[in-house]
Design brief:
Blueprint (H helix, E strand, L loop, with lengths): L2 H4 L2 H19 L2 H15 L4 H8 L3 H20 L7 H17 L9 H29 L2
């Protein structure tokens, strides 16, 4: 796959939009971010009990931090050639580290090293999904 086919306008716009959403929500003052958090948690309340236990088993904050970075990991992995897709983990971890460092200067926001771990787990999930889909598509194309 050539660089031209990887950097399609749709992929670049999607990655940019996901990154902008992550930055906006993680760096917004708590008064803005908290209603969004509540909205997501309310939506999760509608999951079947077994799913809810799985998703929220480690706590709402951990689940939200993981879920928040799944799309970012996927979007960045889609921008990279398949062999470089795992590098999206490093890029997402760097975004998470930057966010946590910047949160130290925002009233009401509390930086936490555990958030970086949760965010990176989310990025790993997004990355693995993209890699699996691309490998499956590649295998299907060879038949």
């Amino acid at each position: 796959m050539s660089a031209r086919s990887i950097f399609t306008p749709a992929r670049v716009l999607t990655a940019g939009a996901v990154l902008a959403a992550v930055v906006a929500l993680t760096l917004a003052p708590r008064a803005i971010a908290w209603p969004a958090r509540t909205l997501v948690l309310d939506a999760l309340d509608h999951l079947p009990p077994s799913w809810s236990a799985l998703v929220l088993g480690a706590g709402a904050d951990v689940a939200l931090n993981i879920a928040f970075f799944v799309p970012l990991g996927a979007a960045i992995a889609l921008l990279l050639p398949l062999r470089w897709a795992p590098a999206s983990l490093l890029l997402c971890a760097l975004v998470s580290l930057a966010v946590e460092a910047l949160q130290a200067g925002i009233p009401g926001r509390v930086p936490d090293a555990e958030d970086v771990v949760s965010n990176t787990i989310g990025a790993a999930i997004g990355t693995v999904v993209v890699i699996a889909v691309r490998l499956t598509a590649r295998g299907a194309g060879r038949r």
